[in-house]
Amino acid sequence: MNAPQDKTAFRPAYRVIGTRPVRPDGVDKVTGKAIYGPDFVASGMLQGAILRSPHPHARIRSINTKKAEALPGVKAVITGADFPGLAALEVAVGESSGNIKHVGRNCMAHEKVLYAGHAVAAVAATSSVIAEEALALIEVDYEVLPYVLTIDEALAADAPLLHDDIFTQGLDPKPTKPSNAALRFTIGRGDPDAALKGAHTVISGTYSALPVHQGYIEPHACVASWNADGQAQIWASSQGAFMIRSLTAAILGIALADIRVTPLEIGGGFGGKTTVYLEPVAMLLSRKTGRPVRLTMSRGDVFRASGPAPGGTMDIQLGADADGTITGVVMEFKLLGGAYPGSDTHPGAMSALAHYNIANSRVTGWDVLCNMASTAAYRAPGAPQTIFPVESCIDELAMKLGIDPIDLRLKNAVKPGDVGVMGMAAGEIGYVECLEAAKAHPHYSAPLGPNQGRGVAGGTWGNYGGPSTAVVSVSEDGSVLVTTGNPDIGGSRASMAIMAAETLQIPYEKVRVTITDTSSIGYSMLTGGSRTTFATGKAVIEACEQVIATLCQRAAAMWGVDAEQTEWRDGAVYCLSGDKQGSSLTMGQIAAKAGFSGGPISAEVSLNAQGFLPAFGVHICDTEVDPETGNVSVLRYTVVQDVGTAIHPDYVEGQMQGGAAQGIGWALNEGYVFDKDGRVDNPGFLDYRMPVCSDLPMIDTVMVEKPNPAHPYGVKGVGEVPIVPPLGAVGNAVSRAIGIRMHDLPLTPDRVYAAIKARA
Amino acid sequence: MARVQPMSPFAEQFFGGAQLLDVAAGNLFALVDALDAIGPGFGENAGMRVAFAVDGTMQTDWSAPLPADADVMVFPRVAGG
Prior knowledge:
The complex is a heterodimer of chains A (760) and B (81). Chain A has 760 residues and is an alpha+beta fold. Among the domains of chain A are: 1-34 and 425-460 and 613-760, Aldehyde oxidase/xanthine dehydrogenase, molybdopterin binding domain (Aldehyde Oxidoreductase, domain 4); 466-609, Aldehyde oxidase/xanthine dehydrogenase, molybdopterin binding domain (Aldehyde Oxidoreductase, domain 4, 2-Layer Sandwich). In chain A, helix 15 (492-504) packs parallel to helix 16 (532-559) and helix 18 crosses helix 19 (726-738). Helices cover 30% and strands 26% of the residues of chain B. In chain B, strand 3 (50-54) and strand 4 (57-58) form a beta hairpin.
């Protein structure tokens, strides 16, 4: 909205890139024709249902399924005993990895249940009503065990252990006793203790945040069909059909080529659909019945059994010179990972200070297990929680030293060439440009009223590249088909079409994009890590370049000249020499004669995309606090972000606004609440209070375009970083509005009111 | 010889807490083999859990030639959302 008018000051002028054409999947979605996970129907399909544990921690003594199996209409019942035995084995999960034994047992419990909502049995029946009725007939004999839901409970000396085979990784010497602390990870450099001792000013505090859910509208759903010949199909909504294929195959012990996964439209993922919950269960029910089986989570199931982002506690000490130079930071955080290891400890530690150039630092993170659903990725996993205390301390430091909060950040901001704590020099990053744009924005200098406060916060996220495949085909009439294997969760159809149109120098409307199944294209890593427009986009561009080369060869052959004597311009081949000099052939003219030359014109490119760069953002938030109730209203909000090159600006701005809205919810309203029996007490959108449009102002966006030189069009990932700064920006705004530093999220009215009351 | 700095948790898990290892290797495939010989089990984990930075740049192509005096950081792979 407030993008610089003269974009060529930042990057080259383009034909299609930077325009805002209508989204190619828009009509299907607004008319209800798009097929999402719960919509898909297969011939002869049965309805599945899952029985979930009412206890947060219990040993399964026995499961009696006889009554359920005898119910008319029930075709199969399965339990953990139907799953193959799984050895601990690391497999790819998203850009990282997970222990397949844990992934499998999260789909269905074997000996123990580890959270209220953990699956213990499943039914396939001729109707959903019969399947639900059958669940009530399954008798599970539990030995109820004590449970832990907080970090203090989980790390107590006499805490009940979730797993007796997990020993804290990252300790030297290796521990001899199992623990609920799955991992300790430390990253740092210099001598932070000495730096703190010698600092002019030290700011310290203990901060906390609750677990929050990604809150996607569409619940997890799939249909599986496993034939007697061993070949299977899965139709599912997820962030990666290849991810579903690899995890399901590993859990069930079958060959990858025997599973064909077709991606359906996805109604939101935000990182939460980067693993499997239902697919292996549906596969086993299908094998047992010989028919396709659908499984769909209810909203309650989604909250109870699919991954939230971890909450946690964060202790921080930050030291600075009198001029605001940050000299040292020591931080220790503990994240509640839920039932299985793999919370966001590593990225949280790596991100915490990555937007500042600090000579002395030590960040230690702990992955702590508890009797809650196993956590999953959520936009920039780990970074919001660890950057919140950093940005709060910097705000407090600015107030103490009397320095403008943006100037203080500018003084310490990481710049291109700065070597980070991982030993890597920063590339063409734009944090400084974002801070300067934020300072120049009218929002930053607008006057504030009584009980109002303005907060600023910055943040970063590393982004990713990785393996992708794309196919570009020229139809007989010269229109272009682009095919990829990456589900479109944020507008990637449009961005792929734009990059193809730009490269081929043809109108956007001549390009159509299809997301295909795992048996129809080479491997692509899932859509996550803000990687798709960067990595899959590179594959699309390279495929277009190969198509152009082929078109030039074909035209050259028609003209009887060398291909070097042709030029690709405005979507056509031009002859540069000989009798035909000055002649041209369009894509359609060449493609129409493809059958008389080398055959169909297409190219498939598989690559491992290198050169991704991190994203940076700066958010400004104005809040007003009602001193009588503690209620916080967000009055004005501005997101400034280094976006590389905005391929489709509407989508980029949408990511910035969406991430900010989710972060505001995390800061003000959201959080898991457990009842006295350890069950999620707010498993629905009525009680789990996500912000809706009426809660928020129009979120303004400023796209700072500092292109990535390692991408043909300068792309940087944009989808995750906008959720990073809001926790600090909102927290700082509220703290300034009431004159009290707020440490614990969410900033619900009761907490804010209690803080005001305590001061009075 | 490449100067290899294994970070937590790999330093503790496979290399007895060593912060710096000198390893001769022509590329990252050979480096992983050499590190597996020093810390048995590392190679099995490397493909899934490990990321490498060579001379300050992320390197995911293990076949790329490794400069003789390269600085190699070994750190955990992280996932986005």
